[in-house]
Amino acid sequence: MSVTVNIYYSGVNGNAKKFAEEMVASGIVNDIRAEDGNIRYEYFFPMEDTETVLLIDSWKDQKSIDFHHASPMMKKITELREKYDLHMKAERYMFDEAGIPATDKAFIKE
């Protein structure tokens, strides 16, 4: 069962965006995406909060997340978080194997 974690990085003076930009420019994001079990690793910028960046981080299963957390990659991420003095809030979601109900699909244009 896949797991998605939404991580909100917040800082001041544009530091959250600088963090995301350095994560991409340094190649760390590509390295994470190449890890076994990674499904998605993507940053978004909330329109109403310019000091926050949202990371959508999806993995095949908890074992893949545990492997990622034990990898040297986490040290690099932690160092960058500290460099930019970021705070975090996390939300965790499990994949619904039943999919999107027909009652919801009526509101989705594909």
Brief characterization of the structure:
This protein has 110 residues and is an alpha+beta fold. It contains five helices and four strands. Strands 2-3-1-4 form a four-stranded antiparallel sheet.
What does this entry look like structurally?
37% of the residues lie in helices and 28% in strands. The chain is of the alpha+beta class. The protein has a four-stranded antiparallel beta sheet. The longest helix is centred in the first third of the chain and has 11 residues, at 15-25.
For this entry, give a set of tags:
single chain; alpha+beta; Alpha-Beta Plaits; 4-stranded antiparallel β-sheet; 4 strands; globular
How do the helices and strands line up, and which of them pair or pack?
Elements: E1 3-10, H1 15-25, H2 28-33, E2 38-44, E3 52-59, H3 62-70, H4 73-83, E4 87-94, H5 102-105
Antiparallel strand pairs: 1-3, 1-4, 2-3
